[in-house]
Amino acid sequence: MIDPVVDLQWVREREGRVVLADVRWYLDGRSGREAYEKGHLPGAVFVDLDRWLARPASPAEGRHPLPDPEVFAEGMAAAGIGDEDTVIGYDDTGGVVAARLVWLLRATGHDAALLDGGLTAYQGNMVTGPSSRTPAVFTPRPWPGDRLADIDAAADGGAVVLDARDRPRFRGEAEPVDPRAGHIPGARNLPCRENLDDTGRLLPVSQLRERFAAVGVEEGGDVVSYCGSGVTACHNLLAMEHAGLGTGRLYPGSWSQYSATDRLAATGD
To answer: pTM for the full model?
Structure first.
């Protein structure tokens, strides 16, 4: 399987042999599809996070539960992504959203990676309007249990639990969308956006390893990653894998599920 992060040169050397997927999505309600149609990388298809990468929100499961495998497969096939395709996902936020697509593909055995730097890495002319590919065959595969954690696993203290949200949300100083502020007791804050440098590219591996070590992550250790709704948490998992520390587990319900229960919440650092 390819590395979870590749650069633009890697993509250019494989032109015509990889599928670019634009996965822009915004917490503030802006339209990712509209942003895509105003300008995207040549040949890139749009993948709708809410439609194909998640089930409808509910208090019981959170804001972005994992999609049914059949729905995910339908979305990939409609976008022209087939079983054997190599997919390179990007967005305009350093990959923190596109990581959801890449993680889902890799977890089910497909070659997929983030484009380092995302949209900002590309210096040529953007393409407007939609781009399309011939519909493909994509076979549904169940989500692997060993790559997932439920609410009990996230709360029982048996793993290193990472919270990928920005620091004010982790501390409980702000909560724009979920029922309560705070974090899962015992979780360590590793904001996924701090995996990036000032240009939106991933930090060097040595610095990533230092970041993970500072919150107790050891190579091959049991790690559970969560965020607000299980989307940006995937960025920490991909960064961890890229740094050679293992794959970890995703808690899909994340804080949007946990905060809708009566379980204890922590605030502060």
So the answer is: 0.97
